[in-house]
């Protein structure tokens, strides 16, 4: 997981799967962090999950998500 940067952090359970699908289609690899922690908290939505991408893909990933209407803070 070297040279990975945080692309987004969210408690929205639909946002990361959507972002991963869009980025996968664009050939950008992603890695999801904090999955187990959010499962342990019982899916009440208080612990965010993070989506990581390679540092060199960060700007392109943000652009691709924006162009596809995937809205997030970060």
CATH superfamily: UreE, C-terminal domain
Number of helices: 3
Rg on CA atoms, Å: 12 Å
CATH architecture: 2-Layer Sandwich
Query: Which sequence of SSEs, written as H and E, runs from N to C?
Result: EHEHEH
Q: What percentage of amino acids are in beta strands?
A: 15-25%
Broad structural category:
alpha+beta
Task: Give the domain tally.
Answer: 1
Instruction: Give the terminus-to-terminus CA distance.
Output: 20 Å
Task: Report the helical percentage.
Answer: 25-40%
The counted number of beta strands is: 3
Major sheet: arrangement of strands: 1-3-2
Question: What name does the CATH topology carry?
Answer: Alpha-Beta Plaits
Poorly predicted tracts of residues: none
CATH class equals: Alpha Beta
């Amino acid at each position: 997981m070297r040279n990975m940067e945080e692309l987004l952090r969210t408690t929205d359970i639909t946002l990361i799967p959507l972002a991963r699908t869009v980025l996968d289609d664009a050939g950008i690899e992603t890695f999801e962090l904090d999955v187990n922690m959010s499962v342990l908290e019982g899916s009440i939505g208080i612990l965010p999950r993070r989506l990581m991408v390679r540092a060199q893909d960060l700007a392109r990933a943000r652009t691709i998500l924006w162009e596809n209407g995937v809205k997030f803070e970060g």
